[in-house]
Amino acid sequence: MSSSVPVIAIDGPTASGKGTVAQRVAAALGFHYLDSGALYRLVALLALERGVAADEAEQLAQLAATMRPHFAGDRIELAGRDVTDAIRTEEVSAMASRIAVHAPLRAALLELQKSFRRPPGLVADGRDMGTVVFPDARLKVYLTASVEARAERRYKQLIEKGIPANIAALSADLRARDERDSRRSAAPLKPAEDAYQLDSSALAIDEVVAQILDWYRRV
Ligand code: C5P
Q1: Which domain range does residue 172 map to?
Q2: Burial 113-125 (b: 16+ CB within 10 A, else e)
Q3: Closest C-alpha to 44, from 78, 79, 92
Q4: Using CA positions, which residue lies closest to atom 21 of ligand 1?
Q5: Domain count, the chain
Q6: How confident is the model at residue 64 (pLDDT cuts 50, 70, 90)?
Q7: DSSP notation for 68-86
Q8: Is 19 exposed, middle or buried, given 0-12, 13-18 or 19+ CB atoms closer than 10 A?
Q9: Counting atoms of ligand 1 from 1, which one is nearest the CA of 100?
Q10: What backbone phi and psi angles, to 5 degrees, belong to 8?
Q11: How far apart are CA 113 and CA 75, in angstroms?
């Protein structure tokens, strides 16, 4: 049953604009939306709060297997607590990237991710949606953008929120995360062989969304 439900997988590096694009594509089609990065962030938050270290793979997997996050619109709750903002801090971002290298943790999140596949369809955003989690996705998109363009976008987002930021530090951080995501042996960040690749450095979000919807109509 679930495999007949269409999935659009949108993968790519940190700050490539995947999240916004995936949400808009989902809204345009009336599909569900999975922010898989949020699941890694939730585990990172729990680990930081409970004193589990980034290299304790089995304990991290245990946290992942037992957490019961609740997605309500664009809010995320954990055990009745709204953690939407708590999982977006730089500390949690760094921890999420570090723990995501562990195969047992990734395996523990697999079923939870697959459970988001419900009619009429799903748009899933992450690093391994097209390669590992939904290899039979109807459309796979690999969204990239230059480090400069991504650092610039993140800089604007932080400044808009009143959070002080520095472009050079953001670029260095993006490079470090790209490196970790691409080099890890468990589900490394790479385009699926059958993915449509799109460089969004010089494109507006609307253009990226329109391109993906156009591809989806043709597959
Ligand atoms: O996409 P986002 O930045 O929220 O993801 C947080 C971290 O989780 C990333 O740095 C990445 O290392 C990891 N991640 C992953 N696989 C996914 C989604 C996120 O390894 N499918």
Answers
A1: 2-218
A2: bbebbeeebbbbb
A3: 92
A4: 126
A5: 1
A6: very high
A7: -EEEETTEEEETTEE-TTG
A8: middle
A9: 20
A10: -110, 115
A11: 17
Q: What is the pLDDT of residues 102-154, one digit of tens each?
A: 999 999 999 999 999 999 999 999 999 999 999 999 999 999 999 999 999 98
Cβ atoms of 140 and 9 within 8 Å: the answer is yes
Q: What length is written for the chain?
A: 219
User: What's the gap in Å between 217 CA and the centre of ligand 1?
Assistant: 28
Contact 93, 41 (CB under 8 A): yes
pLDDT digits (tens, 9 = 90+) for 168-183: 999 998 999 899 889 9
pTM value is 0.94
Q: Residue with the nearest Cα to atom 11 of ligand 1?
A: 97
**Atom in ligand 1 nearest the alpha carbon of residue 133:** 21
CATH, residue 111:
3.40.50.300
C-alpha to C-alpha distance for 187 and 48, rounded to whole angstroms: 23
